[in-house]
Amino acid sequence: ATAVSSSQINLSWTAPTNNGGSAITGYKIERSTDGGTTWSTIVSSTGSTATTYSDTGLAASTAYAYRVSAINSVGTSSPSNIASATTFSSSIAPSAPQNLQATPGNSQVSLSWQTPSSNGGSAITSYTINRGPTSGAEATIASVSGSTLSYTDTTSSNGITYYYTVTATNSVGDSPSSNEVSATPQQTIIYMQDTTASFGLSVYSGRQIQSEYVTSSSALVGKQIDTILVQLKKGGLPTGTVTVGVFNSDLSVKQAFGTADVSTLTTSYKSYTFAMTAPNTYQIQSGDRIGIKYTGGDSSNYAAIMTDQTNSFDGTNSYLMYYTTSWQSFTGVDLTMTLEQ
Prior knowledge:
By secondary structure, this protein is mostly beta strands. It has 3 domains: about 1-85, Immunoglobulins (Immunoglobulin-like, Sandwich), CATH 2.60.40; about 100-185, Immunoglobulin-like (Sandwich); about 190-340, Jelly Rolls. The chain is about 0% helix and about 45% strand. The strands form 7 sheets. Strands 15, 16, 19, 22, 25, 28 and 29 form a 7-stranded antiparallel sheet that branches. Strands 21-20-24-17-26-27 form a 6-stranded antiparallel sheet, with no helix packed on it. A 4-stranded antiparallel sheet has the order 4-3-6-7, with no helix packed on it.
């Protein structure tokens, strides 16, 4: 039992280890205001197998005790252990916003967070965003409405690390600060941007990888990247996982940038972005195979990636496909793909 305001207590419990040979159909919930001497039934049967309940409309500054019984087709079990909680005396300041996250961009930082676990019995009216040059030295830079859970700081400068916290406000006052996060904005550098779409090639168990091949003379060698953008779709009803990243000649994954459930891909080509977790980057090396891998499905149930048949970023034999048991190279072909940091 957990009080979340001056008028609400949330309950949770675990289903019985033995249902008596008949499925649980609901739960009976009882409440006591005298420490468990007398009980009143507030829910005769929940009518579901859910194991949570919110008791609302309660009096402030009041101690409540609860017990729960399981119901099946035979009858009602003996009560559970007793759980108690006391509603808040009145509205108080909210608890801290939760799970603040920061994502750096080009001269900006995008922030997102979750609502406090308790609003203190009064609706959240606003959130205050705080920023500082060092940890613990944050000052207010903006505020947003109580229904807004994100903010983009467009006053930040590239190459500088910023620290952020967020506080919540209700009619009583301000919450404690959220967890502190930091981010360093950076200008996006595009090392390869091929947006020409010719036609796609499938990837499946018999043709596991479609990739760009980085030759020793490639301008990409030595570049640091953290994001790969490709155009993907599915054909038929494939299942399993598609991996986008860098692969070795033995088909093993050298560096994964991300994965996708192939069944969730659209049936027409769509741009997908796969990014490493900041601040990680990958340094491109000679011999890298950058592209997509899918080892499931067949020629009727596959993933597919868009290619450009008009030019190649890397010269002769820039494109490699692993087909059946060997790598096959092609000239004048590359993936419709963007590599950036």
